[in-house]
Amino acid sequence: MAVTNLKIEDFESTIENNDIVILDFWAEWCGPCKQFSPIFEAVSEKHPDIVFAKVNVEEQQELAGMFQVRSIPTLVFMREKIVVFSNPGMIPESNLEEGIQQLCDLDMEKVRQDLEKAQQENS
Predict the structure, then answer these.
(1) Which residues are catalytic, by number?
(2) For the chain, what are the domain ranges?
(3) Which of 13, 18, 33, 55 could form a disulfide with 51 if both were Cys (CB 3.0 to 4.6 A apart)?
(4) Which residues pair with 78 in a beta bridge?
């Protein structure tokens, strides 16, 4: 699957209908974002079962706010509607591939248990 441009109105259906979603928060004026874009595109071609979505922070400020994006580019890895990793800054292709492998290998039952435990401790 090629990279899609994600808008707030498509966000809910995108995470509801796809197990793994990787978001790239970027802006037109951002040099590192432009350098990272071909890497993101190339890796997306190798993983047709994963949704790779670009989010323009200037056009989609609400989405950027939801993910507390403070710098760009920022990558957000989601699995089963849960944010499991967020990384500000550009990363090399090998690190992106490694992150995808780790995301795929996660025991999501344990992630949900850990998340529930953390929420209980914070309340």
Answers:
(1) 30, 33
(2) 4-122
(3) 18
(4) 21, 83
DSSP string, 48-68: TTSEEEEEETTT-HHHHHHTT
Give mean pLDDT, residues 77-104. Answer: 94
Average pLDDT over residues 26-36: 95
Q: What percent of the chain has pLDDT over 70?
A: 99
Q: Would you state the CATH architecture of domain 4-122?
A: 3-Layer(aba) Sandwich (3.40)
Cβ atoms of 115 and 57 closer than 8 Å: no
User: 78: buried, middle or exposed (CB in 10 Å: 19+, 13-18, 0-12)?
Assistant: buried
**pTM confidence score:** 0.92
